[in-house]
Amino acid sequence: MKFKESDVLLKIRDLKIQGYSDETWVDIIKGVDLTLHRGEVMGLIGESGAGKSTIGAAAMGYARDGTRIVEGSSIEFDGMELTNASEADKRALRGSRIAYVAQSAAASFNPAHKLIDQHTEAPVQYRIKKRLEAQEDAIELYERLRLPNPQEIGFRYPHQVSGGQLQRAMTAMAMSCRPDMIIFDEPTTALDVTTQIEVLAAIRDIVDQFNTAAIYITHDLAVVAQMADTIKVLLKGEEVEEAPTDQMLSNPKEDYTKSLWAVRSFTVEQKARPKDSVPLISIKNVDASYSNGPKILDDVSFDIYEGMTVAVVGESGSGKSTTARVITGLLPPSKGEVLFKGEPFPPSYKDRTKDQLRQCQMIYQMADTALNPKVQISEIIGRPAQFYSGLKGTALKNRVDELLDLIELEPAKYYNRFPPELSGGQKQRIGIARALAAEPSFIVCDEVTSALDQLVAEGILRLLDRLQKELNLAYMFITHDLATVRSIADEVVVMQNGQVVEQGPKDDMFTPPHHPYTDLLLSSVPEMDPNWLTTLLEERGIDNIGDAAMANIDPDDEKVEGTQV
Amino acid sequence: MGDIIKLVGKRLGLGLLILLIISIIIFFMVELLPGDIAQAVLGQGATAENLKALRTKMGLDDPAIVRYLAWLADAVTFDFGRSIVTDEKVTTIIGERFANTLFLAAYAAVIAVPVSIILGVVVALLRNSVFDKVANVVTLSFISSPEFFLGYILILYFSVKWGIFPSIASLSDSMSFWELLNRTFLPALTLVLVVMAHMMRMTRAAIINLLASPYIEMAKLKGAPPWKVIVKHALPNAWAPIINVIALNLAYLITGVVLVEVVFVYPGIGQALVDAVSKRDFPVVQACCLIFAATFILLNLAADVGAILTNPRLRHPK
Questions:
Q1: Does the distance separating the beta carbons of B236 and A109 come in below 8 Å?
Q2: How far apart are CA B10 and CA B6, in angstroms?
């Protein structure tokens, strides 16, 4: 153990926090202990609802609106008890000695002020630095965090800066008063993998340089393995276990932890294209743009065969969802066409017949917003069955029951429920049932597991796989998560800037040589090995990650041209 | 910046179109008023020949559409014709009175806008406190009382009992500016009380609406004191709805002052309109209505531009 007893910075004992819901106070944190030493980085991991963020906020003596820290809890920061400190005393710590880095920098920077003005706010307020000194310091921190154009970037407004850069600017802001401790609340969850590496490397560097203690909150085990000295696993407001990172990864004690570690084991066997058959969906040289804007899709072509899963991967803005919109007819292409079993599909959904419409269904990322909260499950699933198949009365009810059976939800229990009464995974299952109700041959799954916890996501993947086998469905699986691709895809299409850069059977895609962009994507996915980031940085060089690496792709590389398989 | 000019141009064009439509509505509404204008001008004793002669002179025998176009052609050059009661030019009748109304509105606005915004910020800061509730109840009672009632109450105390301000706001050219302010204080105060509640409550609501935003939590976790969280972090993002309510209330200050003008005998455009309606002086009525419509359109345009200027995304495009 490299940390000494005398170096304890934060000592939380028997922390209990309650949240107000349905007119009563419910326990959300049920007696958690936590000890953090100076310079130590502790990873807090767990699924949604585990209370990670709530503990993070409590470490600053802060209870979010609608929550309260229960009496008897103790939060001792550097000898000062925060649970009974005055508001003013606690405020004096925040920003100066304890800083916070939020999940979405885009939402957590005030849109009305320049980055540097938000950066200098705390140091100026605490009279640690004069305004101009603080600005110079900000520029120096921007440089250390390898932000492009550090002299100038701070003078921009948040909306003028990209997500990954904002996240680094927020880390710089947290450093502005050289705090003793920083709370990182899922700082890379909203970022693409290539950008994530930049931010992870920047955070790790700066925490090392200033010997800052940190609590790193995330649900991504591979990420926490790179960042943390110690890992604490949480489940429903209670601690499962805590151990140094190496030990936790190699030898988890509790079953729950083991199940978390084992999540990525689900894979389906890769299917080959049926011989001598016409592709079910064939996208041919499609260009598309939104209302005369710039071209979003540029000469996109790929085929999807009956009963197969084609995963479309790429970073945000690469055109994955736009391709889906073209296939479903929501966005007519400006050039090219979509064929269904060799026959051209009318470009706009308005011109498609009912039978053509039923063939392509969609499942969405956010089941929360994709289901009308005021409509009963029976009607959500029943409507497409009624619309496409003209079912009525008992026939309709039987069909809904059948569909609920298919998605493994008990019909009698769920028939009359409303979406808000269901969990995230159940809602996603309803979304699947709604798509199935039309009896399609092809379903677009747009990031269907991204908003779900890993164990729940795996359940959804297994269900989709089973349905595919039973109903001979074809899936277009849009995702940015390569682990999902590895487990469920038969073929992979890699997209970048609206173009298909590489496509082929999954096994080929995951074995070198790759297109350089695919290579970059693959190598950017964090692995459980705690030395992964260090090794990667050594291999690639600190200046060759993220955007820089993207710019360094050699256009003359032979794989860049030979994208077709 | 080019985008904003383009947008203002577009809105102005749209405003003109709306104004045109309104002019049509106004003209034909006046047309629909019961009774005969010639009869009204000449009175009960008029002979049939006299009436006929007057109708021909006023062009009343022409089809309505011809008269509308003639009126519109003149109105475009700010010639609203002559009053049929006094035969004065309409512009001379309402010109000075409109200026008076603008002065009173400006006087009230200069007080009401800053006071309500500051009050709105304070009640947002002290939300759900006693002060918040008292401020709400008081401003709401002002807005719920009829203006003439408020006016008389103010006269009762400020002029009759305490004798601080004059009760009649009559104007003369020889008055100094301070005298003018003093004389028009009570009508201005009445207007202030009437419009404050809206603006204050919208400021409060717009700010509180933002308090759940992640950047507000960030500001709190950076150690910013509550007043700074509100003033520096919430208010700059809350301007758009506030500006819109301000614009609506400013428009009300110009177009809704009839009662206040009557109570304080103030020579404004509202009184001119009431007089004209009762005397069937339709050129004056039309001109007044058109001015009111233009006021609404211009102020709403100003609100839109203001809302854009306070939005950094539109002010500093990528």
A1: no
A2: 6
